[in-house]
Amino acid sequence: MLLNVIERGPEEASGQDAGRPPVVLLHGLFGRARNLGFFQRRLARTRRTLAIDLRNHGASPHGLMDYNTMSADLLDTLAHHNALPATLVGHSMGGKVAMTLALMRPGMVHSLLVADIPPARTGHGQFGLGEQMLHVSFPPYLNRAGADMLLQHYIPNADVRALMLQNIRVGENPGWCIGLREIVESMPNVESWPYIPEGYSYPGPTLFLAGANSPYIRPEHYMTMRRLFPNYRLELIEKAGHWLHVENPERFAELLENFVETY
C-alpha cells in the first residue's frame, strides 16, 4: 500500500547536506502527517523530509493493521519516493512502525528516533475511545464548532478532542475521514508488539525520547531495548507526558535536530 506523503526540503541542497539521508516523520494513533508540521518545517531548512499518513489515517488508504503490514507500507512508500535508506522518527504507534522496519530491514534505516514507546506490548488507552467514536451520529451538515460540541459528550478532555476533530469531515455529509472501523478492529494488534525472530537487532544509532511524566518507557523495558537496539540511548524530556512533542516542543525539537545532524 502506498501511503500519503507530505514532502518538504530546502530550496537548494547545500554541499554539506547533499547525499544525506531523508528524515521520515511518523505520527501516533489517530494522528496524521500534518501534526508534525512544526518539526518538519524546521528540519526541512536543511534536509529532505517526508511526513507520512499511516494506513487508516489522514489521506492514506484504509485496511486492517498490524506492525509488519504497516512497516511494509512504509518501506514500499519510501522506495516509491526514492527515500531509502532513511532516518526514521516515530511517536507512539509510529515509533513501533519505525522500530519494526529497522529490525526487519536494518539496511533500509540510517538511524532511528523513537518517541515515548518501548518495543513491548503497551496499550494506548484508546480502545474504548475508538469504539465510542463508531457510535457518533452525524447531522446532515456540520461545521468545526458544531463538531467540537458534538464530541464534547464523548470526549471531555479538550486535547484528546482536538486530536479527534481533525479526523472529521465537516460541511455537507459529515463523517469520519479515517478508517475508524478498521482501526477499532485492529486495536489488539496496535496495542501489541510484533513477533521479532531470535537474533534480529538494529545496530544503527537509536535514540529513545521519553516524557518524564509518561508511564510508557519503564526500567523493565531497558533489557529488551538493549538487546534489539544495542546502540540506543535514552533521553527524558521534562514537563512532558506521552505527548512530549506537544507538551514540550522546543526541547523535543532540540533533541531531534541534534540527533539528525549528528547522524
UniProtKB/TrEMBL annotation:
The record's top EC class is hydrolase
Alphabetized SUPFAM superfamilies for the sequence? alpha/beta-Hydrolases
List, alphabetically, the Pfam families matched. Answer: Abhydrolase_6 (PF12697)
Instruction: Recall the GO molecular function terms of this protein's record.
Output: hydrolase activity
The gene designation is ybfF_1
The record's annotation in PANTHER family points to:
PROTEIN ABHD11
**Which protein is depicted?**
Esterase YbfF
Q: Does the keyword tRNA processing apply?
A: no
InterPro entries under this entry? AB_hydrolase_1, AB_hydrolase_fold, Epox_hydrolase-like
Every copy of the AB hydrolase-1 domain together lies at 23-254
Keyword flag Acetylation: no
Q: What is its EC number?
A: 3.1.-.-
Keywords tagged on the record = Hydrolase
